[in-house]
Amino acid sequence: MKNPSPILLFFLSASALHAQDTDLAKKLANPISDLISAPIQSNYEFGIGPGDGTRWTTNIQPVIPFGINDEWNVISRTILPIIDQEGLAVTGNSLDEFGLGDTVQSFFFSPKSSSPIWGIGPAFLIPTATDSLLGSKKWGAGPTAVVLKQNGPWTFGALANHLWSFAGDDGRDDVNATFFQPFVSYITPTKTTFTLNTEMTYDWTNEQSNVPVNFVVSQLLKIGDQPVQIFAGARYYLETPDGGPEWGLRFGITFLFPQ
């Protein structure tokens, strides 16, 4: 058999790259896929408090899957926030501060092959905040779960957790909070992804809700040989605690490390 022509090799490699990009885009839409990724997500929020303060939160969110046998994965998802808030004030006291917030660490046990895709496991609240204004000063734990369905270019599902505090500063409010994130996304042939979600949190201790709705556009591309996804969008708050933000922006980059 003759060696394939350079033109045929070009089209074969282009087809393989296209298929790989499609697979990467679908895995990025799945929060518990077997893909190592490192999202850096920035949220800039406006209209906080009586002084119309602002808060810039950059979440470092590595996702690392581990295969524990032929049938199951464990997916580690970490959220470490870096917070810069300015112009916030309560009863004349300034709440301006910069530093780390509390870390949320989740582990999802997920079958390697299932339809719908699902995962369940523990979540932990770790008091990594560098200032009392930026965190709860509490240790917490609780269950977390995710379920989703992927059908062609569509992905839809929901992620949830509940955290209770069990140790920490006795002078601070106990943590008793439910987080619920329904989401839907659509991937175009150019690997542009449109995502709509809400990130609802209900604080049972203080009986307060926080309900931002996010619309984000993402684009998969390569910088040299490094696949990345860049994203940007807006968020609007349907409900917030007293003095909460009115609206905000979301943008960032995700570094991908296909195995």
Question: How would you explain this protein's 3D organization?
Answer:
The structure is a single chain. This protein is mainly beta and 259 residues long. It is built from 1 helix and 17 strands. The radius of gyration is 21 Å and the shape is globular. It starts with 5 loop residues before the first helix and ends with a strand. The model is unreliable at 9-17 (pLDDT under 50).
Short structural description:
This protein is mainly beta and 259 residues long. It is 9% helix and 62% strand.
Major sheet size, sense and barrel closure: 15 strands, antiparallel
Distance, first to last CA: 33 Å
Q: What is the subunit arrangement here? A: single chain
Name given to the CATH homologous superfamily: monomeric porin ompg
Helix content: under 10%
The first-level CATH class is given as Mainly Beta
Whole-angstrom Rg: 21 Å
Shape: globular
Number of domains: 1
**CATH-defined architecture:** Beta Barrel
Listing every helix as H and every strand as E from the N terminus to the C terminus, the arrangement reads HEEEEEEEEEEEEEEEEE
Structural class: mainly beta
Strand content: over 45%
Task: Record the SSE blueprint.
Layout lengths: L5 H23 L7 E13 L4 E8 L2 E5 L4 E15 L2 E2 L2 E2 L2 E4 L2 E9 L5 E10 L11 E14 L2 E15 L7 E12 L4 E7 L1 E4 L4 E16 L2 E14 L7 E11 L2
Antiparallel strand pairs: 1-2, 1-17, 2-4, 3-4, 4-7, 4-8, 5-6, 8-9, 9-10, 10-11, 11-12, 12-13, 12-14, 13-15, 14-15, 15-16, 16-17
